[in-house]
Design goal:
The complex is a heterodimer of chains A (about 270) and B (about 260).
Chain A (H helix, E strand, L loop, with lengths): L10 H4 L9 E12 L2 E12 L3 E5 L6 H8 L7 E6 L2 E2 L5 H8 L2 E4 L11 H12 L4 H14 L15 H13 L5 E5 L7 H17 L4 E6 L2 H4 L5 E6 L2 E6 L1 H5 L4 H8 L9
Parallel strand pairs in A: 3-8, 3-9, 6-7, 7-8
Antiparallel strand pairs in A: 1-2, 1-4, 4-5, 9-10
Chain B lengths: L1 H31 L8 H11 L4 H24 L7 H39 L2 H7 L4 H39 L4 H11 L2 H27 L5 H30 L1
The chains are: A alpha/beta (about 270), B mainly alpha (about 260).
Chain lengths: ~270, ~260
């Protein structure tokens, strides 16, 4: 049984991100989550600043994806509170949660494109589901989005005809279709070669700049690929925030665990 | 030791209850969404085409030869005591009451149920269902409702076709192959098979369609793991649906009697 504290009247006003000084757009407070006997989150406290790029890093299995899925209500926490703006998610029913999800876009690790639809229909899907756009408006929107992600002219191709990098970019275009307030990336560079990885980073920054007010959250274990695009970095370890700060803070940190993670070394406090 | 035994017994009891609860959730979710927008008429028609039209060849083939072989064996047996004229009626009653709905159910479970479980299962393991959720689209409304409704509408129709084609098969064997007179075949058939037999079979088709749709969607929706999980879900959907159809058939027959 979850023990919920009463939500504050204005959690945004109370929660200011200590790293960027921006108000908290998403706030996790003492969040716990277990799958059977395996405890993934053990009292997570985290503030995602509004309008910035936050990168959450950590080893595989430390709960990065679980953290992200909680903020969209794809998973329910066992204990704790999560605020998106002034909406407290843990006490919400499915219908209200769907309205909160309307404010999010998500780029899945393996793109999660609908394999029965071509690129055009994949990007149009959220528009057809939730808007009354005409076909002409949708076509214009898809053309714009494909231009933004550098895939103009691929409208009729099926997901099976796309490379891994192209799928992720189509996934990004689909996530942007409804002009979300929050954009979540789950391991955006995993499985990409270094050049495609750099291109993806650039695309994330371009997208962030092209959409004023957008709050981006990137989940990654590829610290080198995402370090230079972050406004704030958070390291998860054993189900809690181990450290947070600017990329410079992590680069110059003397902490043995952080140094080992950044160096990708086998020698250090973290064992395989 | 005692704790482990208690845990084992607990899992043994709670496991099936949990499965049943999830199955009921899928069934209730699909049915309660019928009048909730968006209605998904296009998807329902697509699924009716997939489950119904694409199953027609196998239903027609199986129906024809089931009626034919039943007539062939019955004719030989009945001719031992000069009762060949009863073949038409016997085959008609057996087909409309039992063989038509049951064999149709088993065939649809094998052909369409397995495909539904595999499709939804692979959507689950490739995060496509999470993507639906993330885009604020209810997966029950988008995936489950059209398939469940389509299976419920189409299976009784396929049952009726199976019945009719089966009777044609029996007629072809009795009248065209074994030389029985057409009036002898038809009189008993029309005399013995009444509307209640036919309607009872169609009602069974509705129940079997509900079972097929629910089990296939449930197995697919709760698939775990990768390709292996999808394979298990597919196999399991056919086995569970088949067992439920055979079991339900007995109880429906008992109630209808």
């Amino acid at each position: 049984m979850s023990q919920r504290s009463a939500p504050p009247d204005d959690p945004q006003a109370e929660a200011e991100d200590p790293v960027t000084g921006e108000p908290g757009a998403i706030v996790y407070s003492d969040v716990h989550k277990a799958f059977g006997d395996f405890k993934v989150l053990k009292g997570l406290d985290l503030i995602i600043p509004r309008g910035k790029i936050t990168v959450i890093i950590g080893r595989s299995g430390t709960g990065k994806s679980v953290t992200m899925k909680h903020v969209m209500g794809l998973l329910r926490c066992d204990k704790g509170n999560i605020w998106v703006g002034k909406d407290e998610l843990t006490s919400m029913g499915d219908r209200r949660l769907r309205k909160v999800r309307d404010r999010f876009g998500i780029v899945f690790q393996h793109a999660a494109l609908f394999d029965s639809m071509n690129v055009f229909d994949n990007i149009c899907f959220p528009l057809r589901e939730h808007t009354r756009m005409s076909n002409r408006e949708m076509k214009a929107k898809v053309t714009d989005l494909l231009g933004l992600v550098g895939l103009s002219g691929t409208e009729t191709r099926m997901p099976s005809e796309l490379s891994g990098g192209m799928k992720k970019r189509v996934g990004l275009a689909r996530a942007l279709a409804r002009d979300p307030e929050f954009l979540l990336y789950d391991e955006p560079t995993t499985g990409l070669d270094p050049i495609l990885s750099a291109a993806m980073d650039e695309l994330i920054v371009t997208t962030h700049k092209a959409k004023p007010g957008l709050t981006s959250v990137i989940i990654s274990h590829d610290i080198r690929a995402v370090m230079h695009i972050a406004d704030k970095m958070v390291m998860l370890y054993e189900g809690v925030v181990y450290d947070e700060g600017t990329p410079e803070h992590f680069e110059t940190s003397d902490d043995a665990l952080i140094k080992q993670f950044i160096a990708g070394s086998l020698i250090g406090p973290m064992s395989v | 030791m005692i704790t482990r035994i208690v845990e084992w017994i607990g899992r043994l009891i709670l496991g099936p209850i949990e499965e049943l609860g999830r199955g009921v959730r899928i069934l209730w979710g699909g049915l309660s969404n019928v009048f909730i927008r968006p209605f998904r008429l296009r998807l329902i028609i697509q699924q009716m085409e997939f489950i119904g039209i694409q199953s027609l060849p196998i239903i027609v083939l199986a129906g024809f030869f089931t009626g034919a072989v039943f007539a062939l064996q019955s004719f030989r047996a009945f001719s031992l005591f000069g009762a060949e004229s009863m073949v038409g009626g016997t085959v008609g009653v057996a087909l409309t009451r039992e063989l038509g709905p049951t064999l149709t159910g088993l065939l649809v479970a094998g052909r369409a149920g397995s495909a539904i479980a595999a499709e939804i299962g692979s959507m689950r393991v490739s995060e496509q269902i999470d993507a639906l959720d993330a885009m604020a689209t209810d997966p029950i409304n988008y995936l489950i409702k059209p398939r469940l409704i389509a299976a419920m509408i189409v299976t009784p129709m396929l049952t009726a076709i199976f019945d009719l084609v089966g009777i044609v098969g029996a007629w072809a064997v009795c009248v065209k192959l074994l030389g029985q007179s057409e009036p002898a075949f038809m009189v008993r058939l029309l005399d013995w098979v009444d509307f209640d037999d036919f309607a009872g079979g169609i009602f069974k088709g509705l129940i079997f369609g509900t079972i097929i749709g629910t089990v296939a969607c449930y197995k697919g929706f709760y698939t775990k793991g990768g390709a292996r999980g999808v394979g298990q879900a597919t196999t399991s959907s056919v086995v569970v649906a088949s067992v439920l159809i055979l079991t339900a058939n007995y109880f429906i027959a008992w109630v209808l009697e």
